[in-house]
Amino acid sequence: MRSPRLAALFAVALMATSCSDVPTGSDPTVTARGRIGLAPTFSPSAVAAFQQLAAFGVEVTSVHVRLVAPDGSMRDTSIAFPVGMNELHVELSVPIRTAGQTFRADLELLNSDGVVLFSGSQQVVAQVANGLDDGTPASVQINYTGPGATAKTVTVSAAGPSLPLGGSLAVSAAAQDASGGSISNLLVRWTTSDATIATVTSTGFASANVTSTGKRGAVTVSAITPLGLTGAMALTIIPVPAKILVISGGGQTGIAGSPLAQPFTVELQAADNAALAGVPVTFRASSTGGAVSSVAATTDASGRASTTLMLGPDAGVYQFEATSGTATPATVNATATPAPAARISFLGGNNQTGVVGTNLAQPVTVRVTNAFGAPVGGAVVKWTTAAGGGTPATASSTTAADGTTTTTYKLGTHAQIQFLTASLTGVAAPDGEVNFSFTALADIPATISGSGAGQHAPAGSALASPLGTIIADQYGNPIAGYKVVWAVATGSVGSATMTPSISTTDVGGRASTLVTLGNQPGALVITATAGAMLQNYPETADVSSAPTAPGTLSGFVYDAVTNAGISGASVTVLNGNQTVATVATNGGGNFTTAPLPAGTYSVTITATNYTTVNISTVTLNGNTQAPAAPLVPQSTQSGGISGTVFDATTTRPVSGTVTLELRAGINSTTGTPLQTVTTTQSSYAFANVSAGTYTIVAKAAGYADGTRTGISVGGSARTGQDVILAPVGVAGNVRIVLTWLQLPYDLDSHLTGPGTTGSRFHVFYGSPGNCSSTPFACLDVDDTDGNGPETVTITQQVPGTYRYTVHNYSGSPNIDVSGARVDVYINNALARSFSVPQGSGRYWTVFELDGTTITSINSIGNGPVTSRIPTGGISASRIPSSGVHDDVDVITEARRTHPKRSAAPR
Question: What percent of the chain has pLDDT over 90?
Answer without folding.
Answer: 40
